[in-house]
Amino acid sequence: MSQGQSVDRIQALSVAQSLVTVLTPVTERIAIAGSLRRLRPKVRDIELVAMPRIEERPAHDLWASPETHDLLEERIAEMLSASAVYARLVENHRADGSIDLQTKLGPSFKALICDNVNVDLFIVRPPATWGCIYALRTGPGDWNTRLVTDCKAIGRRVEGGQVQRWDGKAWVVVPTPEERDFFAALGQRWVEPEERAVERVRIDRPIADGVRA
């Protein structure tokens, strides 16, 4: 989460919806997450989760393989060049305890500013799954921490943007293409985004073993 000034929900939602409109053609999926999704009246930033659209184009060399293009990366680069969005400096905590400020424009996370509002863009790339990333980026943070801690008691863990279960010999990936799949894989009954709080975490092994919430 960024540490910007609080912004009124209506203002932030307008900016978020505009970004979703611009980025929808270059994504397979995109959605508003974070405190906006949880219906908070004021937010510190906009959080978006997106899955990029990948396109193959003919190579310039007749005998070369087709070139793969990430349309989301291309669109963000265009927006940065046109000053439609700006790169944002965020705190970088080093192993030695020191902190500096860096831009974050990596393949899985981009820290941006749009219309004077901080934007965190989280990009779902394999092996991460939509269900896992969308749920965790909706938050809140203490809810996430309790979920991923308590699920260990039933042999589950969250690793690399996916859920894994211990089968007695090794960690095996549990498919979580949707948010409800993520909840079920951890043994947590469904809770609406605006109702998520650490007190609502209840890990239940039967749910994780196939009894859906």
Please state the structural category: alpha+beta
CATH-assigned homologous superfamily of the largest domain: Beta Polymerase, domain 2
Sheet with the most strands: spatial strand order: 2-4-11-10-7
Report on the biggest sheet.
Answer: 5 strands, mixed
What is the gyration radius calculated from CA atoms? 19 Å
Please, how many helices? Answer: 7
> Mean pLDDT, rounded to whole units?
93
Total number of domains: 2
The name of the CATH topology of the largest domain is: Beta Polymerase, domain 2
Principal-axis shape equals globular
Strand content bin: 25-35%
Q: Would you identify the regions where 5 or more consecutive residues have pLDDT less than 50?
A: none
What is the H/E string? EHEHEEEEHEEEEEHHEEEHH
Briefly summarize what is shown.
29% of the residues lie in helices and 30% in strands. The chain has seven helices and 14 strands.
What order do the helices and strands come in, and which of them pair?
Blueprint: E1 7-8, H1 9-23, E2 27-32, H2 34-37, E3 42-43, E4 46-52, E5 54-57, E6 67-70, H3 71-81, E7 86-87, E8 89-93, E9 99-103, E10 109-114, E11 117-123, H4 130-138, H5 141-150, E12 156-159, E13 162-166, E14 171-174, H6 179-186, H7 205-208
Parallel strand pairs: 4-11
Antiparallel strand pairs: 1-3, 2-4, 5-6, 7-10, 8-9, 10-11, 12-13, 13-14
Helix pairs in contact: 4-6
Task: Provide structural commentary.
With 213 residues, the protein is an alpha+beta fold. The protein folds into two domains: 7-123, Beta Polymerase, domain 2, CATH 3.30.460.10; 130-208, 2-Layer Sandwich (Beta Polymerase, domain 3). The chain contains seven helices and 14 strands. It has helices spanning 9-23, 34-37, 71-81, 130-138, 141-150, 179-186, 205-208, and strands spanning 7-8, 27-32, 42-43, 46-52, 54-57, 67-70, 86-87, 89-93, 99-103, 109-114, 117-123, 156-159, 162-166, 171-174. A five-stranded mixed sheet has the order 2-4-11-10-7, sandwiched between helices. Helix 4 packs across helix 6 (179-186). The protein is globular and about 55 Å long.
